[in-house]
Amino acid sequence: MERDTRDIVQELLRRIGEGDPEQVAELFAEPVDWQLSWPVEGHPAVPWIRPRSGRAEVAEHYRSLGAHHVPELNGTTVRQILVDGPDAVVLGQIVQTVRATGVAYTTPFALHLTVEGGLITRSHIYEDSLTVAEAMTAKG
Fold first, then answer.
1. Which neighbouring-strand residues pair with 39?
2. N or C: which terminus of the chain carries fewer CB neighbours within 10 A?
3. Cα–Cα distance between 64 and 69 in angstroms, integer?
4. What is the pLDDT of residue 1?
5. C-alpha separations of 24 from 35, 57, 111 in Å
6. According to the model, what pLDDT value does residue 36 have?
7. How many secondary structure helices (H) and strands (E) does the chain include?
8. Is the pLDDT of residue 120 over 50?
9. Which pLDDT band, with edges at 50, 70 and 90, does 140 fall under?
10. CA 138 → CA 9, 38, 47, 101, 108, distances in Å?
């Protein structure tokens, strides 16, 4: 029996919380439509904010994200999950501390996911990426 959209999204959030990038990436289709709220060319101080297209790149995203933050200070929360057929929107707040600068930041986020055939085919993340870049480049 194929799991529904809500099940896949909840499993994704659980795996992200456990911090195993390869386990997270297994939930994504090949290829995946992946976007973050930043220009395509990315930002040199924020290596994980760039387009991705497959599982290996999704795993790299989560490895990079983890390497640049202090996991014990992660206070990210999910406020709501909205599901409409294959589409889901996860609303919440990111609370992280940058390892290199010691600067904490908070930004609301919306994550638009599409699940087809039991895998995530779309992941579009909307956050205040400028706040993230400023925390990464702060002179702590």
1. none
2. N
3. 9
4. 42
5. 16, 11, 15
6. 87
7. 4, 5
8. yes
9. low
10. 33, 19, 16, 6, 20
| Whole-angstrom distance, CA of residue 95 vs CA of residue 107 | 7
Phi and psi based region of residue 54 (left: phi greater than 0; alpha: psi -120 to 50; beta: remaining): beta
Give rounded-to-5 percent helix, strand, coil for the chain.
Answer: 30, 40, 30
* Predicted structure pTM score: 0.92
Residues 77 and 44: their CA atoms lie apart, in Å, by 27
Our CA dihedral for 12, 15, 20, 22, rounded to 10 degrees, sits at: -40
How many Cα atoms sit within 13 Å of 112 on the Cβ side?
9
Instruction: Look up tokens 């057929």; give the residue.
Output: 85
The CA dihedral of 103, 57, 82, 128, to the nearest 10 degrees, is 30
Q: Which of 33-42, 56-65, 127-136 has the lowest mean pLDDT?
A: 33-42
Burial code (b: 16+ CB inside 10 Å, e: under 16) for 39-72 equals eeebbebbebbbebeebebbbbbbbbbbebbeee
The count of other CB atoms within 10 Å of the CB of residue 108 is 12
What average pLDDT does this structure show over 3-10?
95
